[in-house]
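Ticket 4471: requesting a sanity check on a complex prediction with flavin-adenine dinucleotide. Repro inputs:
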Amino acid sequence: MPKLVIHQEKVEDPQVLVDICPFGAMEEKDGKLSINAACKMCKLCVKKGPAGAVEYVEDEKKEEIDKSQWNGIAVYVDHVDGEIHPVTYELIGKARELASKINHPVYALFMGNNISDKAEELLHYGVDKVFVYDFPELARFKIESYTSVFEDFIKKHQPCAILTGATTVGRQLAPRVAARMKTGLTADCTILEMDENTDLSQIRPAFGGNIMAHILTPNNRPQMATVRYKVMNAPERTEETHGEIISCAIDKEKIKAHVDVLDIVKKEPEKFIESADVLVVAGRGIKKEEDLAMIRELAELLDGQVACTRPLAEAGWVEAKCQVGLSGRTVRPKLIITCGVSGAVQFAAGMDGAESLPGRRTGDLAMAGAPYAFFPAPDHGFRRAQRRRHLVHHERGEPRGHVHADP
Ligand SMILES: Cc1cc2nc3c(=O)[nH]c(=O)nc-3n(C[C@H](O)[C@H](O)[C@H](O)COP(=O)(O)OP(=O)(O)OC[C@H]3O[C@@H](n4cnc5c(N)ncnc54)[C@H](O)[C@@H]3O)c2cc1C
Ligand code: SF4
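Returned structure tokens:
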């Protein structure tokens, strides 16, 4: 970083410089000047102060890295006890696309215990090399051990870019690794593009979704990005595989951790809006908390789940984990019915991948509802459809299926 150097011997009256600084960053103590954290680097003190009293020193020129030494797009395999999180496959699909532009291989980094037999599955999605660190010490996610394995992998294989799912684990692990490797990390990317010179354009909404920031890491490698689940498309699974699985060794001292996992208490299985095929979204057009019963009923009739916009989550009417949007969850259902939602950009940012969007017909079915006109009819189409479905399934002796709502 550039810095300011005060040449105290050239300062006759410290107060002159204190008065010049519009941000109160120039301080005088016992006749000596210093610059505090409020400095905005506006350089007024350099330009308007006594000649040579404050010097602006440019950033030391960084040693240029040899980008050709960094090869491959790596994906961190997010899993619990070998059960691979689907965001991993989505990232492999994206890594494949990026790698093909620069003719690099796709790597998967898989760490855990008793996972070697699960590694083969990754090859069906187009991974060229799966690097497996399979050790009892890695049985449970421990930030110190996992960071050390990541570091070992990066130092030995020098991947040009690393993609990590923005899961609970990924959100902890990726920043640690980036700090350890002294490189950049962009969280929650929504678009990733590869330049010919192997610089990764990491694109994500910024300033409340009003602009799309294009972030580059041109002077460091690896380039690191996290991506939320359901933002990218997962590739089709292929029958044939061509890649290889590499069993990796690591010094056991390196994966020792200061934290021990003593017990694991499983939570009740929860339904997450990210995995719902049908969502009924309640917005501020819902006037009273009691009226959410209509939304819940419709969601139930459609075998779907209730979601909400931020005002309803903030009001405590719907749980925060059900909020769709920039500061909520990203969803990709087959059908979204929005009720009393204006479709603000921050809300829509969380459902760009949905097959059907209100106001933007991108799939088979889109419905933006005026809730109070749509719901109160005691015999509205969904109930009739559900009764018909039950009747049909009852006659055929079939289990319950999905209601098909006509647009
Ligand atoms: C940094 C940042 C992050 C944000 N993140 C999120 C986020 O993750 N998710 C999110 O949702 N928002 C987010 N927001 C807030 C966002 O900008 C909007 O304020 C919010 O999405 C609006 O929610 P809404 O559509 O429910 O309410 P409103 O914008 O108030 O819309 C209510 C809609 O209901 C309609 N309506 C009213 N009465 C009726 C009726 N009787 N019948 C039918 N329709 C009716 C109105 O015409 C209107 O279209 C964020 C904002 C910022 C600045
Ligand atoms: S660079 Fe600007 S903000 Fe910083 S000390 Fe000088 S005048 Fe103040």
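Notes from triage: The first strand starts at residue 3 and ends at 6. Leaving this open until the requester confirms.
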